[in-house]
Every structure is written in structure tokens, then in C-alpha cells.
Design brief:
With 242 residues, the chain is mainly α. Helices cover 64% and strands 0% of the residues. It comes from Erithacus rubecula (European robin).
Length: 242
């Protein structure tokens, strides 16, 4: 009886009543879950010489991460997890413009701390694989664990177009799934369908630039690598990285 009473009082004290704070915390948690799983898949693929993961596990893992993120906070913040999606929601009048910069900051910060968590989790493996040197290019580069970089001989223009088309397909697909006047997805399965959409885009448009489709997912971890020792090269367009 005493334990129940204590838990009830603790829940009452810890309960957050401010709606904006609740939404920001939900967005932080959902984006953190999305990015830590996504980057973790990349770390297993790269830092373990592709013996613990490969391109398939990276694609499947990151797609499932989207599903988990939506289930984590979809009912509170909408689980945008992506500034591009938040912008699309604003442009269609489904999200207030004044919340847009707040969500972008939260999503980027969540991506940043997710990168830190993956770095800590795979610290020994990253340093072993890199031979003690954190680089953006070369046969033992590790920067691509955290951010996406172009494939060999991909120009800036082609890379830009790649991301515009890939992100556009993602947004059209998600907005179509959300449209109540369209063919509805069975209630509760929306995150599963979005995950399959992401997986299909990764499988069809991931070769050029790694298919980030998410400014926060790319910039937050990229900023982390800059501060953690990879240097300013992480912000340069690197061609012929291998």
C-alpha cells in the first residue's frame, strides 16, 4: 500500500502539464531512438569490417527505427523527427509556424546526443578500426558512421538533386498516408507502412549519398564528429572518398 502511494505521488510530481514541453520531450525521445538505431547499424557495418552488419542490415535497421520512433511519440508530438517533414506540415497548415524552429532545434539536438551515445557505445571498435586516426576519407574512414557522404564521382549538383527527389518521395508518401480522404491504412499500422516506405527509398535511392532524407539526422551527427576530433573536413563535399 505504501509503495503504491509513493508511486502515485511520484507520478503526480513528475507529470509535465505544459503541452509544448511535453511535445518537445516526445520529439527529443523519438528522434533519439531513430538516430541511435540508425547510427548503430552503420557502426556495426563499418567498425566491424562488415562482419557484424552490411548494407541490408543498415537499411532494414534504419527503416525499423522510423517505425519505433513513430510509435514512441506519434500520439504526443506527431513524431516528426525530421525538419523537412515539419516544414511540409507547416506548408500544408497542419502545424503552426511558430513551433517549427523549436522542433528543428530539438530534432537536431537529439541527433547530436544520439551520435555521442553511439560513439561511446562503439568507442573501442571505432578506434581499433581507424588505427587511432579519425578520418573522413580513406580505407579506414569512420566519419560515415555518423553522417552521410557522397559516393565516388558524385557531383554537388547530382547530390543535391538526389536529396531533393528522395526527400520529396518520402514527404509525398507520408502525406498521402496521412490524408483521410485517401485509401486509409489500418489504424495502428501507419508506422509500419511509413517504415516500409523508408526502406523502399533506401533500396532505390541510397547509392548516391547514403539516403539521409533528414537535415537533422545529417547535421547533428556531423557537428558531433567535428567536435569529437574528425575536424572541419566533415563539412566539405568529399569526392572519391575510398
Amino acid at each position: 500500500m505504501g509503495t503504491t502511494s509513493f508511486l502515485t505521488r511520484a507520478r503526480a510530481l513528475l507529470r509535465i502539464r505544459n503541452q509544448l514541453v511535453r511535445e518537445c520531450l516526445a520529439e527529443l525521445l523519438s528522434t533519439f531512438v531513430l538516430i541511435i538505431i540508425t547510427l548503430g547499424c552503420s557502426a556495426q557495418k563499418i567498425a566491424f569490417f562488415e562482419t557484424k552488419g552490411n548494407i541490408v542490415t543498415s537499411y532494414v535497421g534504419s527503416a525499423v527505427a522510423v517505425m519505433v520512433g513513430i510509435y514512441t511519440a506519434g500520439g504526443i508530438s506527431g513524431a516528426h523527427m525530421n525538419p523537412a517533414f515539419s516544414l511540409a506540415m507547416c506548408l500544408t497548415g497542419q502545424f503552426p509556424w511558430w513551433k517549427f524552429p523549436i522542433f528543428v532545434v530539438v530534432q537536431t539536438f537529439a541527433s547530436f546526443i544520439s551520435a555521442g551515445a553511439v560513439y561511446i557505445l562503439y568507442y573501442d571498435a571505432i578506434w581499433y578500426y581507424s588505427n587511432g586516426t579519425l578520418t573522413v576519407s580513406g580505407p579506414r574512414e569512420t566519419a560515415s558512421i555518423f553522417a552521410t557522404y557522397p559516393a565516388d564521382n558524385i557531383s554537388v549538383a547530382n547530390g543535391f538533386l538526389d536529396q531533393v527527389i528522395g526527400t520529396g518521395v518520402l514527404l509525398v508518401g507520408v502525406m498521402g498516408l496521412m490524408d483521410a480522404r485517401n485509401k486509409p491504412v489500418p489504424k495502428g499500422l501507419e508506422p509500419v507502412v511509413v517504415a516500409l516506405l523508408v526502406l523502399s527509398i533506401e533500396c532505390s535511392m541510397g547509392a548516391n549519398c547514403g539516403c539521409p532524407l533528414n537535415p537533422a539526422r545529417d547535421f547533428g551527427p556531423r557537428l558531433f564528429t567535428y567536435l569529437a576530433g574528425w575536424g572541419s573536413e566533415v563539412f566539405r563535399w568529399v569526392e572519391g572518398r575510398g
